[in-house]
Design brief:
The chain is an alpha/beta fold. It has 8 helices and 11 strands. A hairpin with a 4-residue loop joins strand 8 and strand 9.
């Protein structure tokens, strides 16, 4: 069965970066890309239904015209890519969640601002909203993305059962072995016991097939004279390990609650340096 990546676009350069990433991913595994744009108008009163249709028609025509332009742009850069375009009226979040009930998608790919960028595109807030609700997760791509790769994958780890679900979801979709780096953030320079680290690595290796599995840690510090918050620790480890893709498990209740704040997932999203696959955990 043909596998499809759903890519959401608001015609910003953020979303073009997401398209480039999805196109490379699709070409690697001979998948299809479906490019979706949604449009709405501010009229909410049902009394104005006729007026709403009046406004929706030109919006639909404009959306379809821009999708045709983007299809040409995609064909120019990725001539062998199987790609189709769809424009739908409605709220982006609700539209995508409805589509996920009707059709089977392999990944949802969306653009993100990237570290140090000012977010002007519509998809910014929508990306994080879908991270919290999408049952298949969201692969967020920063606008700074340059080179596609799937060789070095990192898992933000706190030795929790939810990490099995995240790895299982990812490895079932990506039919290729990779190097896995377990990234762990410590506090007060207290590291896990070495035997606990090795035990966790062995448990993961027994369930999943990797080329190799490594463990990396960085200590978070919040002092006036030296500041290394958790997102910066993650950036540091991602850089030294030359990570191609980061895996992050999201929980609406807490997130690595022993050391991480409830807003860490949003902080990570706002400071993306590499493509990151977020998935809501089931625990």
């Amino acid at each position: 069965m043909d596998k499809t990546i759903l890519v959401l676009t608001d015609f910003s350069e953020n979303s073009w970066t997401a398209i480039r990433y999805a196109a490379n991913l699709a070409k690697k595994f001979n998948w299809t890309v479906e490019l979706l744009h949604t449009y709405t108008i501010p009229i909410k009163d049902s009394v104005h239904a006729k007026m709403e249709n009046m406004f929706l028609k030109p919006q639909k025509e404009e959306a379809e015209s821009m999708l045709k332009d983007w299809q040409i742009r995609i064909d120019d850069e990725f001539p062998d890519l199987r790609c189709k375009t769809v424009s739908l009226a409605g709220n982006l979040e609700k539209t995508v969640l409805n589509l996920l009930q009707e059709k089977e998608y392999h990944f949802i790919v969306m653009g993100a601002k990237g570290k140090g960028m000012i977010q002007k595109a519509v998809l910014g807030s929508n990306t994080f909203a879908l991270i919290k609700k999408s049952p298949i997760g969201v692969l967020a791509v920063p606008i700074t993305f340059q080179k596609f790769g799937l060789q070095n994958i990192a898992l933000l780890s706190n030795f929790k059962a939810s990490e099995y679900d995240l790895l299982d979801s990812f490895t079932l979709r990506v039919p290729e072995k990779f190097n896995l780096s377990l990234l762990h953030v410590t506090q007060k320079y207290i590291s896990p016991k070495q035997e606990d680290i090795e035990d966790w690595k062995q448990k993961l290796s027994a369930q999943f097939s990797f080329n190799k599995i490594d463990y990396v840690e960085k200590n978070a510090v919040n002092r006036l004279d030296y500041n290394m918050p958790i997102p910066r620790c993650i950036d540091y480890m991602v850089e030294i390990e030359a990570i191609d893709l980061l895996l992050v498990s999201y929980s609406p209740k807490s997130f690595f609650k022993s050391i991480f704040s409830r807003n860490l997932t949003k902080a990570i999203y706002r400071n993306l340096t590499v493509p990151t696959f977020f998935k809501r955990n089931l625990y």
